[in-house]
Design goal:
This protein is an alpha+beta fold. The chain contains 10 helices and 6 strands; from the N terminus they run ααααββααααββααββ. The chain folds into 2 domains: 77 residues, Winged helix-like DNA-binding domain superfamily/Winged helix DNA-binding domain (Arc Repressor Mutant, subunit A), CATH 1.10.10; 131 residues, Muramoyl-pentapeptide Carboxypeptidase, domain 2, CATH 3.30.1380. It is globular and about 60 Å long.
Length: 219
């Protein structure tokens, strides 16, 4: 995290709120209060302070019934607390391999790396059911810097909230720059999930500029 901005924010509870919003994308005051075991007004005061300082803003999430719900989310300034990981050396090596051995060479190398990584994940899972394995896998991915979260997501063309499907949502990727340079990684990542979890997987990535959110629908 950006140490200068951390000193400006001060309280650890506010840092916790920012971390949760980075991971979860957006939450209401009520949801945050339940998650942190604090009063509604206590969380509201923290959010208002962070909003005044430019770290948060609000947006309204439509609900099937009733008025839209107001959620807090990170601003561009808030996102600077979570600096992007860059992998220039990895990209340079893959480009050098391509120049030396042809256009297919980087794909072959990446294919081998993702196969090894899938096996390394797979042998660390102990649960036998899909949801249990997905929960364990989510923890492993989170420890690798992917800000992963397991749950149930609205499914279908409009992400219908009444059609739920198990999913893993990742809101940060430590290899995003490599992914942009070599889009084949999106397919390799999907196949990694399928191999580790032994189920069909659909990968859906948010296309909004400056936002990384990738949802893996399971089963």
């Amino acid at each position: 995290m950006n140490q200068k901005l951390i000193r400006e924010i001060g309280r650890s509870q506010r840092l916790d709120i920012l971390t949760v919003l980075k991971r979860d994308g957006g939450k209401s005051v009520k949801e945050l209060a339940v998650q942190f075991g604090m009063s509604y007004m206590g969380i509201k005061q923290h959010c208002l302070a962070l909003e005044r300082e430019g770290y948060l803003d609000t947006w309204r999430r439509p609900k099937p019934v009733g008025r839209p719900e107001m959620l807090y989310r990170l601003t561009k300034r808030g996102k600077t607390l979570f600096p992007e990981v860059r992998n220039p050396l990895t990209i340079e090596i893959l480009e050098a391999v391509q120049q030396a051995y042809g256009t297919a060479a980087p794909t072959k190398i990446l294919f081998g790396i993702f196969n090894q990584r899938a096996e390394a994940y797979r042998v660390r899972l102990t649960a036998t059911d899909l949801r249990g394995r997905a929960a364990e896998f989510t923890d492993l991915r989170a420890s690798d810097g992917y800000m992963s979260q397991f749950g149930d997501c609205g499914y279908g063309p409009d992400h219908n909230p009444t059609l739920l499907k198990p999913c893993i949502v990742e809101r940060h990727s430590p290899i995003e720059d490599v992914l942009r340079r070599y889009p084949i990684i999106a397919r390799l990542e999907k196949e990694l999930f399928e191999r580790v979890l032994n189920c069909r997987v659909e990968r859906e990535e948010d296309s909004k500029p400056g936002v990384y959110q990738c949802t893996f629908f399971l089963g």
